[in-house]
Design a protein that fits this description.
- By secondary structure, the chain is of the alpha+beta class.
- It has two domains: 45 residues, Arc Repressor Mutant, subunit A, CATH 1.10.10; 79 residues, 2-Layer Sandwich (Alpha-Beta Plaits).
- It has five helices and four strands, in the order αααβαββαβ.
- It has a four-stranded antiparallel β-sheet.
- Helix 2 crosses helix 3.
- The longest helix is centred in the first third of the chain and has 13 residues.
- The radius of gyration is 20 Å and the shape is elongated.
- It starts with 11 loop residues before the first helix and ends in a 12-residue tail after the last strand.
- The mean pLDDT is 91.
Length: 155
């Protein structure tokens, strides 16, 4: 059975470990162990099990785009005339550095892209590029004014 197909039972300790790691993936094993009141080996085994079950699929740094000179964040909805080039759109999205995330969606568009660019000029160039992709009829763009909830640690 495919891991995606079955619901995985998580007890309260597993859920607490996940909560700790979601808040700060760099939390030390000893700190996690103390918070969940398990030994280091038992805590390590729990984390390994969560990784093996693909509950935890990775650890990443959360970057502040403003500090990298990326002043514009936006969602771009791609409206296409068919799904015949679905894989090509995903491939192009993965090859485009300004695209942070690409979601396949239902509704008006086939994909929603989270993008980060330096300014409105670079956003306009990115839009022209995306609008030239196969089967793309048009795009709709929503510029993000502020972020009120995200994955960065609560400190």
């Amino acid at each position: 059975m495919n891991v995606k197909e079955k619901k995985i039972y998580l007890d309260k300790i597993d859920k607490k470990i996940i909560s700790i790691l979601k808040s700060d993936a760099r939390t030390s094993l000893s700190n996690i162990s103390q918070k969940v009141e398990l030994s280091l080996p038992a805590t390590s085994d729990r984390i390994k099990k969560l990784e093996d079950l693909m509950v935890i699929t990775g650890y990443k740094a959360v970057i502040n785009p403003l500090n990298l000179g990326l002043d514009i964040s936006a969602f771009i909805t791609i409206i296409s005339d068919s799904s015949t080039n679905f894989e090509k759109i995903v491939k192009r999205a993965n090859e485009t550095s300004e695209i942070v995330e690409c979601f396949a969606t239902t509704g008006r568009g086939s994909h929603i892209l989270l993008v980060q660019t330096e300014n409105s000029n670079s956003l306009e160039q990115l839009l022209r590029n995306i609008q030239s992709w196969p089967n793309v009829i048009r795009t709709e763009t929503q510029i993000i004014l502020s972020t009120n909830k995200n994955l960065k640690p609560n400190k």
